[in-house]
Design goal:
By secondary structure, the chain is α/β, with parallel strands linked by helices. It has 12 helices and 14 strands. The strands form 3 sheets. Strands 4, 5, 8, 9, 10, 11, 12, 13 and 14 form a 9-stranded mixed β-sheet that branches. A 3-stranded mixed β-sheet has the order 1-2-3, covered by helices on one side. Bound molecules: adenosine-5'-triphosphate. Adenosine-5'-triphosphate binds next to helix 3, strand 12, strand 14 and helix 11.
Length: 319
Amino acid sequence: MTMKDLPPALADHPDAARIRSWSVRGGIATIVADASGMTSAERDALEAAFRAAATAGDVSEVRIAMTAAKTRQTLIAIGSGKGGVGKSTMTANLAIALARMGKRVGIIDADIYGPSQPTLLGTTEKPVAENDKLVPVEAKGVKLLSVGQLVSAGTALAWRGPMASGALNQLVEGQWGDAEIVLVDLPPGTGDVQLSLIQKARPAGAVIVSTPQDLSLIDATRAIDLFGKTSVPLLGLIENMAGYQCPHCGESSDPFGSGGAEASAAAAGIPFLGRLPLSASLREASDAGQPPAAGDGPAAEAFAALARRILQQLEKVGG
Ligand SMILES: Nc1ncnc2c1ncn2[C@@H]1O[C@H](COP(=O)(O)OP(=O)(O)OP(=O)(O)O)[C@@H](O)[C@H]1O
């Protein structure tokens, strides 16, 4: 019996294209169907619908195997040498910008010192576990698993090496399903927690976020070294809080100097991906769970441009 012999009720099902093989022997029908990209509830519903549609005529028993081609996620680590440079804000907005470009995107918020992604994406939903794996929540079109969803910020802060690594593994090994790109918001710094997370997650590339001050750039160089030592390709450096445009007179100034990040990137031999200015409205919107990348102002365009450059670099390193 071939696919052409599908019973009419099965052939007419809107998801009939998912049927990979069909056979009947001794009154037992066997269906193999592709369940890629479906949630477990959708998968169960489809299995029940196929079973009902196949039970006709000589068929007294239906065996169904739902398979899912595992989407290989491309992980991109977002790191910084020091805290407070806007790494989490950047991660949330880049994820949304990538999603708006049609990518299926996830975020792993591994920042045990300040897991802020739930706030940035405006969600308080907690992930559930299915088959011992955490199922990411959806917010602003992005899948999210965060340390902040598992424990209080104070608890995470007190974690030491193995505990932190164990918890972070749970995030990495979550049910990322059809997500193509997963951004990993790393804890700031270059210690053991970062090292073991990088070794475990094996990101396809890393992006470093820095502010223009010399001290931040020195720390950024340490983060660059960390990825270099662990053989993770550096996709480039983003300069955040670069320059300030006065909301009253419109005049631009560079309180922390200008050109430092570009020079640091050049010295380290990595691409400079672009800059984002210091902006009170960006801070207010981000902290209120309204990422500007989801809107259509100049900030959304700036994040989209950074996201495009990241994809270009990713292609170059074969990620
Ligand atoms: N370009 C910007 N202009 C103004 N404020 C910004 C900008 N980028 C980030 N911020 C603000 O700076 C603060 C720190 O940002 P964020 O939490 O993203 O930094 P971080 O590097 O992830 O810090 P940590 O790793 O310590 O949690 C937040 O209040 C955020 O809204």
